[in-house]
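README: folding subset

This subset contains proteins for which both the sequence and a predicted structure token string are available. Records are stored as plain text. Below is the entry for histidine kinase (274 residues), shown exactly as it appears on disk.
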Amino acid sequence: MEEAREYEALRNHFLANISHELRTPLNVILSAQQIIHSIIHNDGVEGNKINKILRHNNTIKQNCFRLIRLLNNIIDITKIDIGSLSLDVHNHNIVQVVEDITLSVVTFAEAKNISIIFDTEVEECLVACDPEKIERIMLNLLSNAIKFTPSEGYIYVNIYIQANMVVISVKDTGMGIPYEMHDKVFQRFVQVDSSMKRRQEGSGIGLSLVKLLVELHNGSIRLVSALGKGSEFIIELPITIIDDTQITSNIKASDATNNDKIERVTIEFSDIYF
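--- output ---
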């Protein structure tokens, strides 16, 4: 009974927070749109006015992406709950997949004067996985690391083999997570900094989605952290190979594919303001 009451309280907090998360970007979008409307119809678009339009238009775009990210997470969690989210699994070089994702967010880290260091003990490790879901996992962890790491900090992404598992580590020099929150960070609706001054946006479902996506790959994720000493998220995935006729490790991405990836990264990082 106590557990049911606690879950109900978390659910109510989540719904209230979702309302805030949806309302805030919508208000920003509306305000920016009204400013653009005023500039176009009252001031014209000559001279440096175009810079104002572009700036407010970017604000609209970023907040639209925030809503898309939030809705994507809600949809995916709902699909997992009802058992309708499936993996598109093929054999991939997991080292290359993780490295490509890491490199794709370097500009976001540099915008906050944060250094990202990628290191691997192996150049190639074929693993049966869904690269799109691995991307969601890594982008979520990396966006959190950038969000909570101060200027001149570091983020380390490391890959190594341990027994029959490939281990992916995302470690930062950020604010860290209190020990009493370690068992709760992967729970749905829970925000790590809800008891502290809220300095970052978030709905409290990102890490719970990460855990579910890792478990869909028959893997596990754990946290090593202390307040003021940074955080390390450690993912372990089984090294399994399937009978796969599709060659995926050396396919050159098309411009359309690259553009799609850029947009996916931008959506995932949309709640970080630089």
